[in-house]
Amino acid sequence: MIEERVVAVDDDWIIFDPGLIVEPTPASFDPAAWGRAVVGSAEGRSSAWFIEHEEQAWVLRHYWRGGLPGKLFKDKYFYPGRERARPFREWRVLVQAHADGVNVPRPVAARLHRHSLLNYSGDILMQRIVGAHSLADKLADGSMTPALWDAMAMAIARCHQAGYWHADLNARNLLCRDGQWWLIDFDRARKRTAGTWGYENIRRLKRSLDKLSAAGELRYSRQQWRDFVEAWHVGLCGPG
């Protein structure tokens, strides 16, 4: 069970699970402060650092804006109130999804830092799925088997059955380890009532695969995609 505590430290609000991290401070969200505990990193719109601490493996991610707003404001967001700020929203969605049996990383801590009355920046610390490889990686190295396609379809269907809409379901936000799949990066994700929004997620995943395929980064077939969609639909709605 995930516990929750919220503390205020100077200009920061921090929400955390005391079962995983004791008394986090603003320095807990600074990669430089971790020193040799940082064992790697991943670049992208949301930079991430891999941390190993007291036999635990974590991912620290900073929130960066994308598109035109990102060029103007980089990592600053309009402050909508603590509970509606992105770090707190993602934390709570992950906690709820974890409790609902969806394969998501367990959240460790999240922080929002107030720069002024109007804006903030944020970070989130999560457990890392050690040894996992993304869908993009597995398609690139040819290790995606029919069984893995089916297992991935079931994992996504379980997420949708539980009511979770993923804002950016793409080939790098699906991780596989030992035949089991996790969905990561729940920034802007939310729980929704029943509807056709699950198909939007699947179409978003298809666009991601097509973009990477056109760039020569991976290969997959139309038949693989058709079989995946059918398996996802069966997982979501049942056979027939």
TrEMBL record:
Its EC number is 2.7.1.166. It is an enzyme of class 2 (transferase). Pathway: Bacterial outer membrane biogenesis; LPS core biosynthesis. InterPro entries: KDO_kinase, Kinase-like_dom_sf. The active site is at D168. SUPFAM superfamilies: Protein kinase-like (PK-like). It catalyses: an alpha-Kdo-(2->6)-lipid IVA + ATP = a 4-O-phospho-alpha-Kdo-(2->6)-lipid IVA + ADP + H(+). Keywords: ATP-binding, Cell inner membrane, Cell membrane, Kinase, Lipopolysaccharide biosynthesis, Membrane, Nucleotide-binding, Transferase. It is found in: Cell inner membrane. One of its GO terms (molecular function) is ATP binding. Its main location: membrane. Gene3D superfamilies: Transferase(Phosphotransferase) domain 1. Catalyzes the ATP-dependent phosphorylation of the 3-deoxy-D-manno-octulosonic acid (Kdo) residue in Kdo-lipid IV(A) at the 4-OH position. This is 3-deoxy-D-manno-octulosonic acid kinase. It comes from Oceanococcus atlanticus. The gene is kdkA.
